[in-house]
Structures are given as structure tokens and as C-alpha cells.
Specification:
Layout lengths: L23 H17 L1 E4 L5 H14 L4 E7 L21 E8 L9 H7 L1 H11 L5 E2 L7 E6 L5 E4 L6 E7 L7 E4 L10 H8 L7 E3 L6 E4 L5 E4 L9 E6 L1 E2 L8 H8 L4 H8 L10
Antiparallel strand pairs: 1-10, 2-3, 3-5, 4-13, 5-12, 6-11, 7-10, 7-12, 8-9, 8-11
Helix pairs in contact: 1-4
Length: 288
């Protein structure tokens, strides 16, 4: 078990004084993130984790990479795998694309390691909440999906999809040499409009409205992926792997992920998932 480090050993507290929420630099960083989120649902906090912190995160990811659940699937943007005869063959619901990436599950991490330390730091939780203009946030209680690392080995990609949660917090830890770029189409759908026609064009290769981020190791991204179609492009076969840390937070305590999505991402579920599924109430009627 690793010894707990000072938060400053991981995060650049000079540039981003998370421990001083009343400071000018803190308030400025929050204001910039809020503006970006209001504009298109995506904010990037550059170099939040400093190089020494990035090295520690990657060291822990490499130490647990053997626990990665890799998926090589063909799916539609809603994580469905079967043809639906109610829709035309070229409809987004019947458009299936390769997904070949993996996730290190939440029960792999040292409870005192750098991944967990950043995820659970009250200063980090409060900062993300401030950026999202949320009154408070909680660490996602899901034992597998709360704290994860997304792995794309050479040749792999995480194809176009939507998230089931309202927002995601990601820190790029290891950048691919070529490929592995985060791409998204802001607000391509909403709670009352699936946006199927627009989605179909993107799935067919159209680039209108597609934004690409050139993220660097240490950059934190806050992204509203429920309504924005997004992907991580294919990592070149000659590249090093792409590693990203995913810190999941919720606006309510005690939230557990859905059984179907958990099986897709981690290949297993735990009793907590089964219990939560029985009590689940949907927040919208989107396909998913």
C-alpha cells in the first residue's frame, strides 16, 4: 500500500490553488471552465496534474493494467448490439461500429494510491462542482465505474457514443504518438429530440460540427457527454498506448451504474449493481 502523498505532489497547486477557493487564480480558473461548459459542454483545465503527478498516475495504471477488461465489440452509439427491425438499416440505431478499448475497474486501485487520492480529495471534488456550477458533488459510489482508467492499446479506438451520466471528468495520463484524439459534436441531441438525422451524418463520415481536442498529459477535461456524440479516434498501430484516468462524480450520493452498461465495460457486475437496478428510476426517455 502506498503512503498518502500531499495533494501538491500530484496537482499543480501554484497554478490551480484548489486549497484556496477564495483566491483570484482559483476563481479565474473556475470562470474559464464555466464559460467553456456553457459554450459547448466541454472544459479543459490545462496542466492540472503536473509532470511528476502524471508519472505517478501512469506508474499506477501500468501496475494495474493486467486487470483491464478489454472489449472488441461492434455497437451502435447507444451501446446496443442487435439490429432493430423497427428502424431502417441505415438508421443510427442500426449502425454498428467497432469499439476496441478497455477499462481498469475501480476495485483495482490502491485506496491510498495517487488515482484514489486525486479522485477523493475534497479540494478536487469542490473544484469540479464549482466548474459545473453544481451546489455539491459526490464521488460516484459504483465500485467498478467510480474510478477507472480507459486504455487504448495500439490499433484500438473508442467509437462514437453517448454517456449515460450527465458529465465525465477525465485526466489524460499518457498520450498516443498518433491518433487517440478526443472528438465530439456538442449538443447533437437533447432530452426531447434524439437528433437521429444529424447523428447519421456523423456516423457516415461527415465532419461538420465535429470538434477535436489536442489534449496533453496532465490536462483535465470536464465533459457533458449525455447529449454530445463523442469518440476517441483510433490509436495508430505504431503508437504507444493511450491512458486516461476517469474520475466519476454525481450530484446525489449513493449512485450505482446500470447492470447492462457495467457488463459491457467491465465484463461483470457486483451485488451492489443488482440491488440498484431494482430501484432505478430513469431521468429521461432517450434511447441511451
Amino acid at each position: 500500500m502506498a503512503a498518502t502523498r500531499a495533494l501538491g505532489d500530484l496537482i499543480d497547486l501554484e497554478k490551480y490553488p484548489l486549497h484556496q477557493p477564495g483566491s483570484v487564480d482559483y476563481q479565474s480558473s473556475v470562470a474559464v471552465a464555466r464559460d467553456q461548459l456553457r459554450a459547448d459542454g466541454c472544459a479543459v483545465v490545462n496542466d492540472l496534474v503536473h509532470p511528476q503527478g502524471v508519472a505517478l498516475l501512469n506508474e499506477e495504471i501500468l501496475s494495474q493494467k493486467h486487470t483491464t477488461h478489454f472489449s472488441d465489440q461492434v455497437m451502435n452509439p447507444y451501446f446496443h448490439f442487435d439490429h432493430n427491425p423497427e428502424f431502417p438499416a441505415d438508421h443510427p440505431i442500426n449502425t454498428f461500429i467497432e469499439r476496441s478499448s478497455g477499462f481498469i475497474p475501480g476495485d483495482s486501485w490502491d485506496p491510498e494510491g495517487p488515482m484514489t487520492q486525486i479522485f477523493r480529495a475534497p479540494e478536487m471534488v469542490a473544484f469540479v462542482a464549482a466548474c459545473l456550477e453544481a451546489p455539491s458533488l459526490y464521488c460516484y459510489d459504483d465500485p467498478l465505474a467510480g474510478l477507472t482508467s480507459n486504455i487504448l492499446d495500439p490499433g484500438q479506438l473508442f467509437t462514437w457514443h453517448f454517456d449515460t451520466n450527465d458529465f465525465a471528468v477525465t485526466v489524460l495520463v499518457q498520450q498516443a504518438d498518433k491518433g487517440g484524439l478526443f472528438e465530439y459534436v456538442p449538443a447533437i441531441r437533447n432530452a426531447s429530440d434524439e437528433g437521429f438525422e444529424r447523428i447519421s451524418k456523423v456516423l457516415g463520415g461527415a465532419r461538420h460540427g465535429v470538434k477535436t481536442l489536442d489534449l496533453r498529459p496532465g490536462d483535465m477535461q470536464i465533459f457533458r457527454g449525455r447529449y454530445s456524440l463523442h469518440q476517441v479516434s483510433r490509436v495508430s498501430a505504431e503508437s504507444c498506448p493511450r491512458h486516461a484516468a476517469i474520475f466519476a462524480y454525481t450530484e446525489n450520493p449513493g449512485v450505482i451504474g446500470r447492470v447492462e452498461r457495467t457488463m459491457q465495460l467491465f465484463g461483470r457486475v457486483l451485488p451492489d449493481h443488482l440491488a440498484a437496478e431494482k430501484a432505478r428510476v430513469r431521468s429521461d426517455d432517450l434511447v441511451d
